[in-house]
Amino acid sequence: MPVRPRLKPISVVRRPSEVILVGRALEATYLDDADGSVTALLQVLSRGEHTVAELPDAMRGHGFEVTEAEMAGAVEALDEVGVLLRADADAGLDPATRRRHESNLRFYDLFAGLDRSAVDYHRDMAAADVLLLGAGGMGSGVLQALVGLGVGRVRLVDFDVVEEKNLARQFAYGRDDIGRRKVEAARDWVARYSPGTTVVEAVDERITDVADLRRLGAGASLVICAIDSPNDVHLLVNEACFALGVPYIAAGLQYSTMFYWSVEPGVSACRLCLELDREDESGGIPELLDRSVVLPAGRVNRATGPIAQLLAGYVTLEAGRYLTRTDPPVAAAVYHTVELADGMRTTRAEWARNPRCPLCAGAEEAR
Questions:
Q1: Which PANTHER family does the record match to this protein (predicted)?
Q2: How far is it, in rounded angstroms, from Cα 359 to Cα 361?
Q3: What pTM value is reported for the model?
Q4: Collapsing DSSP states into helix, strand and coil, what is residue 218?
């Protein structure tokens, strides 16, 4: 069926000899329009009623004689700058799904074009299978956000029970859940909140080694690490995800610093690369090696509800980039931080592949 292009709901500013298309906050497209034909075409496209073959007749109604080839070229150019959609794309979903995911679809419109629609992005999300490690403050928040997005399946892994103190920041649980296994309470919350959207497999288990992760992650599209034990859990997940060939995201709170980052095995540098980089740096600074810890930092959970929600939001947005490929991941081998006790100052630090990393070297040889 021929495509009917439609102009995205963007601002169009007309000047005497040009038109300015303003969509995203940091983007603007300037088009020459001395005779007003571009403005007329944009007005026609805003209605989304015509195929490319029908555009010459529509333009004739505005007083312009154009050919189908000219219209095809103009539509292609507008699509390249990201301002067109397929007018009938949502028709591929049933009415109930369209109503349920209306805001998700309109978000995907930001990245959609004539070749890939918002519905295509939604279907990628619905087909995704996520291994979510942890059902605590961040993990339960990520689960809620993934369900809102309509992810198809989540394997939720945790070994803890709901306690009263959890209610300060873990909003998938209520007082009636105190004493229940977290994974079961979270699974039941999903069933109540949005039945039929996401299948949750509740796994009441403690992660101990790479073998656990490889077993649990078999067939997953993405792994999200929202646990902090065992102490080397990030390196364990890193190794397992290389074996599985799937990306993963990690995040957490250290004292007053929120952080998140991700790894795409074989594409970005990995977490082991960062560890080796740190070893290389400290190896050249003897005073760092000579220091002894007088008082180890205690484990204190300072994650309030807003902090857990912020982390869950950052992580789930990154997850969406991996699962739908709306745009490239922003945290692949990039350490993002938010300083809660320092004016919400944000930093981002990239790290590169370390030549001593056997995982990245093996991935490079396999390519």
A1: ADENYLYLTRANSFERASE AND SULFURTRANSFERASE MOCS3 (PTHR10953:SF102), UBIQUITIN-ACTIVATING ENZYME E1 (PTHR10953)
A2: 5
A3: 0.92
A4: coil
Beta strands (DSSP E) in the chain are 5-7, 11-15, 18-22, 28-32, 84-86, 129-133, 153-158, 199-204, 222-225, 248-254, 257-263, 334-339, 345-350
Cα-only R_g, the chain? 25
Residues with Cβ within 8 Å of residue 32, at least 6 apart in sequence:
17, 18, 38
Between residues 78 and 26, the one the model is more confident about: 78
36 contact partners, CB below 8 Å, separation of at least 6:
none
pLDDT by residue (tens digit) across 314-353? 999 999 999 999 999 999 999 999 999 999 999 999 999 9
Q: Are 56 and 80 in contact (CB under 8 A)?
A: no
What's the CATH architecture for 5-86? Alpha-Beta Complex (3.90)
Distance CA 109, CA 121 (A): 9
Contact between 214 and 168 (Cβ < 8 Å):
no
Contact status, residue 47 vs residue 3, Cβ threshold 8 Å: no
Q: What is 152-188 written as a DSSP string? A: SEEEEEE--B--GGGGGT-TT--GGGTTSBHHHHHHH
Task: Give the residue from 164, 157, 154 showing the smallest Cα distance to 134.
Answer: 157
138 touches 308 (CB < 8 A): yes
Q: What is the identity of the amino acid at 198?
A: T
Whether residue 83 has pLDDT greater than 50: yes
Residues 6+ apart with CB under 8 A from 149: 104, 125, 316, 320
Outline which parts of the chain fall under CATH 3.40.50.720: 127-366
Q: What is the DSSP letter of 332?
A: B
- Encode burial over 211-250: b for 16+ CB neighbours within 10 A, e otherwise: ebbeebbeebbbbbbbbbeeeebbbbbbbbbbebebbbbb
Backbone angles phi, psi at 82, to 5 degrees: 80, 35
**Topology (CATH) of 127-366:** Rossmann fold (3.40.50)
Rounded to whole angstroms, the Cα distance separating 17 from 37 reads 11
Please tell me the number of Cα atoms within 13 Å of 68 on its side-chain side: 5
Tokens of residue 289, six digits: 């090696």
